[in-house]
Specification:
alpha/beta; Dna Ligase, domain 1; Nucleotidyltransferase, domain 5; 3 domains; five-stranded mixed sheet; three-stranded antiparallel sheet; 7 helices; 26% helix
Length: 275
């Protein structure tokens, strides 16, 4: 669910979408798309929030008993957010850290009115709300869950380039590469050795961090999901500079690279997205 677009996918991976100009249009548009998709009457649903509707922070894990952690986490971000934490829904997930260092949490917060609206949307359509998740977790769910570390380099059209490293279906590391957000818009004539050397250096730094600092298995595969008709050339250029194999992320429901913005809603179809 985004402020400019609502995208709905059914279990057959058929995708239905409609542009909106504000979240006030969500109820009408969501009802229309559910009807098109044949979703209703006690079907289960997972909502995936677009990144403009949540904030994410990395904090040290509070030194409290496990049963007190959920109550303690919101106060770790009270100085990082503009709203009082009482007006936010706050959740978290643990991430790997370097040996002998403090445990870290990725804390996600969403304003309560957004959550209330999503709950109301499900209720109005007679849907069973299985959960609410965020884009970064949903997209990571599309990578094969195994012992290897895999990197996803993903960009929705007009958005920042996002990097996630995933192992066993869990996010180990993520960052935004704002300096390279023009990648999806670039024409082949604009591709320069310096640009790809710089991008490759940033990717290599993340690869080294995973193995040398976090002591995880080396990244063995880089999956690209870039909204560009030159995806093949981008993969070739990066493969020249990097050791891991570089592939284009292939999904039956994504026919063209410009549709990679649909990745989160497809990731939300898998029950593992909430684990």
């Amino acid at each position: 669910m985004r402020s400019d677009l609502v995208v709905v996918a059914n279990q057959q991976q058929q995708i239905f979408e409609k542009a909106v100009t504000s979240i006030e249009q969500w109820p009408e548009v969501f009802a229309s798309l559910c009807k098109e998709a044949g979703i209703g009457n006690e079907h289960q649903i997972v909502f995936v929030l677009g990144n403009q509707h949540y904030q994410q922070f990395q904090v040290e894990k509070p030194n409290v008993a496990q049963e007190e952690l959920a109550d303690a986490v919101p106060w770790t971000i009270k100085d990082m957010v503009a709203e009082p934490v009482q007006e936010l829904v706050v959740d978290y997930y643990q991430i790997p850290v370097a040996p002998m260092t403090a445990e870290k949490l990725n804390v996600v917060c969403v304003s309560k009115p957004i959550i209330r609206q999503l709950v109301a949307l499900a209720k109005e359509q007679g849907l069973k709300l299985q959960g609410i998740t965020i884009e970064s977790i949903a997209t990571a769910n599309l990578l094969e869950a195994n012992e290897r570390c895999q990197m996803l380099l993903w960009q929705a059209k007009g958005r920042d380039l996002e990097l996630s490293v995933v192992r066993q279906g869990q996010i180990c590391f993520s960052r935004q590469l704002r300096a390279f957000s023009s990648l999806g818009r670039m024409q082949e004539i604009e591709f320069t050795q310096n640009f790809f050397d710089s991008l490759s250096l940033e990717l290599q730094r993340s690869i080294d961090y995973i193995s040398a600092t976090l002591k995880l298995p080396e990244v063995s595969l880089i999956q690209l999901a870039i909204p560009s008709r030159f995806c093949d050339e981008i993969a070739v250029q990066l493969q020249h500079n990097l050791g891991p194999k570089v592939n284009l992320l292939s999904l039956d429901a994504i026919g063209e690279s410009e549709h990679y913005y649909r990745l989160p809603v497809l990731g939300g179809l898998d029950a593992g997205v909430l684990s």
